[in-house]
Design a protein that fits this description.
Layout: E1 6-12, E2 15-23, E3 63-68, E4 71-75, H1 77-81, E5 90-98, E6 107-115, H2 121-134, E7 136-144, E8 147-156, E9 159-165, H3 186-198, H4 210-223, H5 245-259, H6 289-294, H7 310-320
Helix pairs in contact: 3-5
Length: 321
Amino acid sequence: MPRPLWTGAISFGLVTIPIKVVSATENHSISFHQYHQEDMGRIRTRKVCEIDGEVLSQDEIGKGYEVAKDRTVPVTDEELDRMPLPTAKAIEIVAFVDADDIDPVRISDSYYLAVDGQVAAKPYALLRKALERSDKVAVAKFAWHNRERLGLLRVREEAIVLHSMRWPDEIRSPESLAPRETELDEDEIARAVQLTDSMALDDLSGFRDHYREALEELLAAKSEGKAVPAAAGEAEEEPGKVMDLMAALNASVKAAKETRGEDATVHEMTRDKPRARKKAAPAAKKTGSRKTASAKTSSGKTAAGGKQPARKTAAKKKAAS
């Protein structure tokens, strides 16, 4: 088990569940050091007092809040510990809500809650079963690092997970970022929905960090004195190029079907354009009378389906008499 980050208890009504908090995630990112390019010396960050220039150790550093320019109020850890904070050693459940009512943008880091001793086994299992059967999640308050936080408790594979959440006033409104009203064709919307269906997945476990893998190959090659792997060339799009949205959607659906091994035949969907109104044909000249007559049908209608003009029909009757 990873090293516990915090120990305390879950407060569930009058039920207390001793727990240990461990991180639910691991960071596999590759970190770099800064160095002096001339002699490869490490560059380190030091905490230096701006008054006397001395490098300070951690036990020489205190907390302070700047209330005005050139005036800082010192605050000690003992003063913070004496503050009336009921959630200092407890994760206090304050409500149960439907999971769909929680905006995902509010969710931050995730932690597993492990039982702390055999005495916690039964109430832990009780809370887990209650969450499973009610199809709800628990909203809780807790305090870490001298700050009260909002949390979300849910069940994941027989374990209770704590998600730290942001307070409502910490979420910025996206109103100013929304695009202007844009006209969309129904065909474009239908093709976009088809694209979401063709890209649907039930399991996300197959995704990998390809950048980290390429970075590991780069570092291994450099450490062994080998040639650096060449990057695959990618076609660059012209900046500011106007995109044909329907063509992009058609190509995307086709590519998604090919990736999934499905029939990649895509019936092209195009925007419905209004038909152009035909101009009235000019009166036929005598030299083109044979060509004009061939375009008419025996029922007295033009090739386009319309009736002959009344003036021409009367002229024919007079000539026949």
